[in-house]
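Students often ask why we bother encoding 3D structure as a string. The short answer is that it lets us treat folding as translation between two languages. Here is a chain of 339 residues written in the first language.
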Amino acid sequence: MDKRILAIFDCEESYAYRLMEFISEKRNLPFEVYVFTDENKFYSCAKDTDIECLLVSESAYKQEVDTLKISHIIILSENGENLNKALHHVNKYQSCENILHEVMEYYTDRSEAVPAALRTGLSRMRIIGIYTPIGRCLQTTFSLTLGQMLARRFKTLYLNFEIYSGFSRLLSRSFDSDISDLMYYFSCAREKLAYRMESMVETVNGLDFIPPAEIYQNLAGIRGSQWMDLFREIEKNSEYEYLILDLSDGIADLWEVLKGCDHIYTISRDDGVAMAKIEQYEKALEQMEYGEITARTTRWKLPVFKQLPRQFEELTYGELARYIKSEVFPELFKEGTNE
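And here it is in the second language, the structure alphabet:
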């Protein structure tokens, strides 16, 4: 990937280097990150170096910055006293994750062309689909727990397709964009997908996720082939090793998406209603010649857990996590590893 230079100019050394370290960890970004805490060194380098994007603190900004040949200048706003309203401002005193979201959104919107993002790892991305035709069986809790456990060792992305996920309230967060926006940007500017994703990805206990659709009707009309095309593009342009799909009946062409998964988990229960629904679902797959879905499916009847964590961030410490470790993925979560 053709790396461009993103420079951070802030006299507050600890802040500047903390932000640099966070951005540098994002291996799939188009930037090589430079840090400047000394004014003279910054201007000396900027005159001789082609800087693509500059993050400059409000206290370090001077009009001389505008004379430099820098395509994108963003002010890290401190107290709002900077009067150059022509430049884009980002609140300095927020999480590094939020700053990066805003920077990448601004950059991808303003940049006519970005360098192609290419996968550097040799292994392919494994897609795990989780779906059951019965309700209230811990599917999302199972999916998030598995995803968080995988994320401790592998770069993992989680996508939720519930009609009403309640994620905003459950995580006490508000989201500026969701998976419907990701599909929109993918349709309009596929070449910028990797960088647009960086402005949208949220994290819970180490697991990356794109917020679920706030209004599920925004996903209406998106065919299964389009979803699979998106997943292939994510694989090609990211470093994700696992993609967890928490699926529901609301997604169009559900069976086509399941067919594209490497492995599928279906959670069942022992009661008569649940077994009847599972039986009908499996007969329908057979009649419609989707037997390959059944071949890739492992059906789990989860035991009764005495207590499950109330917070998403605590899922990897409960009984369900121990069950996944010993029964679902024992080959990955062996004794002596870090999970």
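Translate back mentally: The longest helix spans residues 272-287. Keep this in mind for the problem set.
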